[in-house]
Design a protein that fits this description.
Number of helices: 21
Radius of gyration: 23 Å
Distance between the termini: 68 Å
Structural class: mainly alpha
Largest sheet: none
Number of strands: 0
Order of helices and strands: HHHHHHHHHHHHHHHHHHHHH
Strand content: under 5%
Shape: globular
């Protein structure tokens, strides 16, 4: 196949995977709301829609290149029709609109801050640039490490070949199903770099969502959350952040469900209801990415009630209960099919469940103290990977103690800033419903790997960023 044909088909597959279906949903429902929000939400919605599109086509035996080309063409024509008003605008008007948006961001970034705030703002913007560079530098790579080869991409190849993946245990298939679309467009599963190029997008978009919340709410704590979230991802997920693992993607999808609610603000009831539905789709997307997302599904309707009060204000007690129940029903409809399908296979003896292994057998009967020792060993391994030639095993005793002391101070600061953030209503909700319960579950069942904690990284970042900014303001007022 000619290189230019490969390039065109690869770009078309990325448009299908990352933007087109979700963008059409936003345009049809009138819920776009700005370039950054539209980009982020389109990406999240597209991943969920593509998962079900792939499953339906595979079930019908129609997951072929010709089918996907027809769907892509229909979506492009629909997009042109829905965006016809914007496309008919004079070019100078479009340029002026873009310039106005850039000026708005520039004024926000360059407005007068204290020295500490300016330093944090520069650090946050540098973090965004670092994650953008991380994405660009990873273009052209393929799946080459651990689980992304032996599991996740193997499942994507199964989808591409036209059948439901084998030996999936209970692992959901949103990522492999989307990667397989790239293979179908190219009619070749060995051309992996387009599918692999999606992987670093999740971490980039996660910190970009925090930036957009800062722009929308003019709350500096969201900007403070960017370096905290980035540091957690880089330090505790190791080299897997850019690989084909599902940990950062499930954190992104979970955070997007809350981001949609926060970005909605206190608008019209109809707009709030649309935001709840869109957020529910993102939340279901988290559960369809990895099992950890099921926890967010369980508490998401409560978050809707607490964060989008305008949608429940005039409903009455029965109406509020009915609306919460309807959100649970929507989430069940979106998430249950895959889990019921895998449960039926496990019950029939055609699949094995991973639950007992990952919650019990993996620890080989070790006590809580033995697991604590293993936990310390994993910290050392991560630190060695992060420090490279300055790894702990090459350090002097004094340097080793200094590094451990720094880690202890960082952990103490995270706890301290979390406690400071409890003065904020949103942070109290996140700590009580998300951070603390999930952290306890992780300690009890999933502490064999830091990656299993990734789900709450953006929420920890948001909470710690809020507490950090509160202390900054308190010190400035003294």
């Amino acid at each position: 196949m000619e290189r230019w044909i490969v390039l065109i088909l690869g770009i078309a597959s990325l448009l299908q995977i990352m933007f087109l279906p979700g963008l059409l949903v936003l345009l049809l429902t009138g819920t776009s709301g700005g370039v950054v929000r539209t980009t982020l939400v389109s990406f999240a919605l597209s991943m969920v829609i593509n998962f079900y599109l792939t499953a339906v086509l595979v079930s019908l035996g129609q997951f072929t290149s010709s089918s996907m080309y027809l769907i892509f063409a229909a979506e492009m024509l629909s997009l042109i029709f829905l965006a016809r008003v914007e496309l008919n605008r004079p070019l100078p008007a479009l340029i002026n609109a873009v310039r106005a948006r850039f000026r708005e961001h520039k004024n926000l970034i360059t407005c007068r801050y204290t020295k500490v705030e300016s330093a944090l703002a520069l650090l946050s913007l540098a973090t965004l640039e670092l994650f953008l560079y991380n994405y660009l530098s990873g273009l052209g790579s393929i799946f080459d490490h651990g689980d992304d080869v032996i599991s996740w991409n193997r499942w994507a190849v199964d989808w591409y070949k036209g059948y439901f993946p084998r030996m999936t245990w209970n692992y959901p298939q949103l990522l492999p199903a989307n990667w397989s679309i790239s293979y179908v467009f190219l009619n070749e599963s060995r051309l992996q770099f387009f599918a692999k190029s999606i992987c670093p997008v999740f971490s980039l978009f996660m910190v970009l969502a925090l930036y957009d919340l800062w722009v929308r709410k003019r709350d500096f704590s969201y900007l403070c959350a960017i370096p905290v979230t980035a540091a957690l991802c880089m330090a505790l997920t190791g080299g897997s952040m850019n690989k084909g693992y599902a940990d950062v993607p499930v954190a992104f999808m979970a955070f997007m469900s809350v981001y949609v609610l926060l970005a909605a603000g206190d608008g019209e009831v109809s707009d709030n209801n649309k935001s709840i539905v869109i957020g529910s789709i993102c939340c279901a997307g988290a559960a369809l990415t990895k099992q950890a997302g099921l926890y967010v599904v369980g508490i998401y309707p409560l978050l809707c009630y607490l964060l989008v009060k305008g949608s429940f204000r005039n409903a009455g007690s029965f109406g509020k209960a009915l609306k919460i129940a309807s959100i649970y029903l929507l989430l069940f409809v979106l998430t249950a099919p895959w889990y019921l399908y895998t449960a039926s296979k496990i019950a029939a003896g055609r699949e094995d469940s991973e639950i007992r292994y990952v919650t019990h057998d993996i620890y080989l009967g070790r006590s809580i103290w033995g697991r604590l020792i293993d936990f310390g060993a994993k910290i050392k391994v991560n630190m060695d990977a992060l420090l490279g030639s300055w790894s702990l095993q090459h350090m002097s005793g004094f340097a080793f103690v200094a590094v451990i002391a720094c880690l202890a101070v960082i952990c103490a600061l995270l706890v301290y800033f979390t406690l400071q953030s409890l003065h904020d209503t949103l942070c109290r909700y996140l700590v009580a419903l998300l951070v603390v319960p999930y952290f306890c579950l992780w300690i009890k069942y999933f502490s064999y790997d830091f990656r299993n904690l990734t789900l709450v990284f953006p929420f920890i970042g948001l909470v710690v960023g809020n507490g950090m900014y509160r202390r900054i303001k308190a010190c400035q007022s003294v």
